[in-house]
Design a protein that fits this description.
- It is built from six helices and 14 strands.
- The chain is of the alpha/beta class and about 210 residues long.
- It has one domain: Ribonuclease Z/Hydroxyacylglutathione hydrolase-like (Metallo-beta-lactamase, Chain A, 4-Layer Sandwich), CATH 3.60.15.
- The strands form three sheets. A six-stranded mixed sheet has the order 1-2-3-4-5-6, covered by helices on one side. The chain has a six-stranded mixed sheet with strand order 7-8-9-10-13-14.
- Strand 9 and strand 10 form a beta hairpin.
- Helix 1 packs parallel to helix 3.
- The chain is globular, with a radius of gyration of 16 Å.
- The chain starts with a strand and ends in a 7-residue tail after the last helix.
- Bound molecules: zinc ion.
- The site of zinc ion has 4 residues, from loops.
Length: about 210
């Protein structure tokens, strides 16, 4: 599998991830937050066939390039069923504070436990784990076969998500982190929306004493 991180700059810098099968060149893009032209150029140069846009949550800095990629390559986009509100309400996706306003009306929806296969023979499979708290539509995409997860803004290297935006809830976030994410194997690597890669073990060690 090819995992490529591309930092893009809108009002904030966000990590966009390509996750592509190296045999078939088919894969997905996760959280195209800005710089659609740059992302499209990468897709064209690498001759990747991007089959889906997967969204960890509907904040503007994770969805800013969705519309253009959707239109240019006819790629469908997917978000948790609670994400409809975020994609269609500029106060919820926070684009009310930044130009341009973002309203996305062609989303496909998934639920906790759904999974997306990538590549030949299910070489990778991204399982949806619902992790509300940062927003009511937050998920992580967990590939148990390869021991990685795309964690959006739920958990970062050395911190967890903010809860002061619409739909944020500190109690839910704690439940998502401690009772869902920290239950994954400790060697699992976490690729977040705004930090370097980390691991479950490293983040758990901030709360638990292993000695
Ligand atoms: Zn966010």
């Amino acid at each position: 599998m090819i995992l490529e991180k591309v930092p893009v700059l809108g009002a904030l810098e966000t990590n966009v991830y390509f996750y592509v099968d190296d045999e078939t060149n088919r894969g997905v893009i996760i959280d195209p937050g800005a710089e659609a032209t740059k992302l499209a150029e990468i897709i064209r140069k690498k001759e990747w066939i991007i089959e889906k846009i997967l969204i960890t949550h509907g904040h503007f800095d994770h969805i800013g390039a969705v519309e253009q990629l959707h239109e240019k390559f006819d790629i469908p986009y997917f978000i948790h069923k609670n994400g409809e509100k975020y994609l269609t309400d500029i106060s919820y996706n926070l684009s009310v504070f930044y130009e341009p306003y973002i309203v996305l009306k062609d989303a496909n929806f998934f639920e906790d436990g759904d999974a997306f296969s990538i590549g030949k023979n299910n070489k990778a499979q991204l399982q949806v784990i619902y992790t509300p708290g940062h927003t009511t539509d937050s998920v992580i995409f967990y590939d148990y076969k390869n021991g990685i997860a795309f964690s959006g803004d739920t958990i970062f290297k050395n911190s967890i998500g903010a809860v002061h935006f619409p739909g944020g809830d500190a109690r839910q976030l704690a439940d998502s982190v401690f009772n869902r994410i920290f239950k994954l194997p400790e060697e699992t690597l976490l690729y977040s929306g705004h930090s370097d890669v980390t691991s479950i073990k490293a983040e758990k060690s901030r709360y638990y004493n292993y000695d």
